[in-house]
Amino acid sequence: MTSIDRRKFMKLMAGGTAAVATGSLLSACGTETTAAEPGFKLPKDFYDVPMKGTARILHTTDWHGQLLPVYFREPNVNLGVGDAYGRPPHVVGKKLLKAMGIEENSPEAYAYTYLNFDKEAARIGRTGGAAHMKTILDRLRAQAGGRENTITLDGGDLWQGSGTSLWTRGVDMVEMSNILGIDVMVGHWEFTYKEDEVLSNVALFKGDFIGQNVRVKPDSLFGDEYPALVEKYDGRGLFDEDSGHAFQPYVIKEINGARIAIVGQAFPRTANANPPEFFPDWSFGLREDDMVALVEKIRADESPDAVVLLSHNGMDVDIKMAERVPGLNAVFGGHTHDGMPKPVVVKNVSGGECLVTNAGSNGKYVGVMDFDIQGGELKGMSYKMLPIFTEAVPADPEMDAFIKQLRTTRYDEKIVESRNPDRFYSPDRVGKTYGEILDEKLAIADRTLYRRGNFMGTWDQVLCNALREEYDADIAMSAGVRWGTTTLKGDWITMEDVMTQCSMTYGETYVSEMTGEQLMNVLEQVADNLFDPDPYLQSGGDMVRVGGMDYTIDPSKKLFERLTEARLDNGDPIDPAKTYKVAGWAVVNRTPEGRLMWDVVRDYIVKNKGKDNVLHLPKINHPTLLNVNTNPGIADYPGKST
């Protein structure tokens, strides 16, 4: 889709929304799923948050392309190591409820934990939805005395994670954020579109796209191609030639007379976690020293009443950074999808106090922080996070109409779904609307399918099974990403569900040969990304999912000592010298030749459903965990643990 096409698409969406009748969005999209029990109600004042101060910041993060309401099961395994042991977000289930002062069997318990998930999902229903979030944001703005007394932040991972975001190259989510009223955002998966697509989206976005740690590589500053690309998009992508900042490092917003500085931090490890070919002119990194110097400079030169960090570091990294960077009053974090109803209070090296928050994912929550600023002095901060219970919130008509119009858009033969555009393209979809493609019913789930958690999820098993069948592989590996919604037991698995698990710009699959030694080394290194005691050395994701193989892991051990007892499903031990066929997808450093993951998964589900239309999973490859039973970050683990 060219930049001109993108602008035409935006105009089409804006013009078409008025012509689309409002009503039930889910029924209009043809989605048939378990509904909430009749009569579910929240207290009338549940979404009443009276202003406790003079300036209000509203925060969402990690939407991952989800415009519609979703089911999302929170983890039963979120282990903390080192200083993070037992510290939020590494507390799950009943221990989390106790730590946060939440009653069991309450709507909040359903929102923040996995407890009684199936039963509570049937009782309470879906969460999130852009149309419902818009209603709540407008209500919270009104309670603050008007939008002029508020600022709305988004922590990134907004443009990726659905069929429509892939096919529009994130444009649908840009328009959503404009309707929603997002004022400032940072990025991560945003950078997995091509640079010109990113810059076009930034130009279309009505707010500020910031990031102190995104720099233009020196060789690119003086080349012929990159300056021309920047000029094409009105200077976006080269904020400061002297410093090399690609985007504004920070922005000052005046809220009800108070000056609040918002510093941006993109995901530091983007170049390691995602294909660098998409952003050849940009570099990333933690850049803590630069952050310290920048905050000091802002304090000295701008005289702000408060300084906050809008971050996509992940919560553990945010906590460490808040300890080491003086002058920050609050951190609004993303990346690790942690729905934390209360902030972590951090003391920094100079003795100041900073509140570190994280607002979950999938449009499921909104964080509300009020600043009490009097006479240029910050007197106090008050924070509350609100789950968005879809059934209890009316849909905003404008957003509702936009989403319906979007789903009537027809799949275009020019859409590029792959890094191999000449090889992979879906002619069978051409002429169908997005809604028609995504509403396709594939099979009925024999159990609740979920992803989120440090180890194997049931949706991950479906993906691994599909890869093994596609390539007749011994073993399959699927990345431990934290995006991907939940499908309830007994519900139809739709193509939309599949796309929420697989939708990305590098979705090609592959098969390769690996020795047992090579395989175990890869798994050990991924485990170290998750369980290294130093948050700055963690990737912020979960353990790679492995299908066709069981293993034992001790997270407390060191690199190359964590994994033992690895065996194939047939019981044969993994032989270090033997060669195995290993299938996978989402490769960072090369472009495989295999079919796109969502097509592989779709075909597997359709082929393997029974006569009753039910997809049965014979086995889930849950690893055995050692030395975790006293860790408050694990509960009701379906595999073995000691």
Describe this structure in words.
By secondary structure, this protein is of the alpha/beta class. It has 2 domains: 3-18 and 54-70 and 126-215 and 229-400, Metallo-dependent phosphatases (Purple Acid Phosphatase, chain A, domain 2); 440-625, 5'-nucleotidase,  domain 2 (Alpha-Beta Complex), CATH 3.90.780. 29% of the residues lie in helices and 18% in strands. The protein is built from 20 helices and 24 strands. Strands 4-3-2-1-13-14 form a 6-stranded mixed beta sheet. A hairpin with a 2-residue loop joins strand 6 (250-255) and strand 7. Helix 8 runs antiparallel to helix 15 (397-407) and helix 18 (495-502) packs across helix 20. It starts with a helix and ends in a 17-residue tail after the last strand. Residues 18-24 and 27-33 have low confidence and may be disordered.
